[in-house]
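Our consortium's second objective concerns turning raw sequence data into structural hypotheses that experimental partners can test. To show how far this objective has progressed, the report includes one record in full. It was chosen at random from the queue rather than selected for favorable results. The single chain below, 186 residues long, was entered without modification.
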Amino acid sequence: MDAPWHYGPVCEGKVARTIDEIPLDWCHGPGVVIDIRHLNPDAAASTDDLRRGLEGIGHQLTPGDIVLIQTGNDRHWGKREYFSRGPGVSADATQWLTDQGIRLTGIDGWGWDSPLVGQAREARRTGRNDVFWAAHFVGVEREYCHMERLANLDALPPNGFTVSAFPIKVKGGSAGPARVVAMLDG
């Protein structure tokens, strides 16, 4: 789990929280899975992609929801392509999630942003260097955490479950391992 300190030393104009300072209520709550497996493996899901995904499952986000993004990339675990493919989430969509009161997100890919190979291609094409880790850097303006490298999101219903994801309290750490568990009713 990446803490606000992972994105930069300042968040929302104050010293960014480290992983041992994350409020525990961010780490336990109602889960929702947004499926973006249909996107190009180099894509960054837009706000509209997330909205359509939520509409498709009849879910409206509420503050405290834990949003899990299903890319299907976990099926490539242990293979070289795991690190270079699989859609991520755009900066605009990340900002939109935080605007909805979402403080914890997760993805079943190597990283939250689109793959580094695609970011490098875009930087070369445009001559811009601000394309690198743009969704991560939302965390400089908005306080949130995200988890990467989740697995088995395809085994979950779209909503109606609880997520528990308490990180190890690495003192002063920008991130920490977390055991992420989905609890299904009944």
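The partners drew two points from this record. The chain is about 20% helix and 25% strand. The first strand starts at residue 10 and ends at 11. Both points have been shared with the crystallography group to help prioritize constructs.
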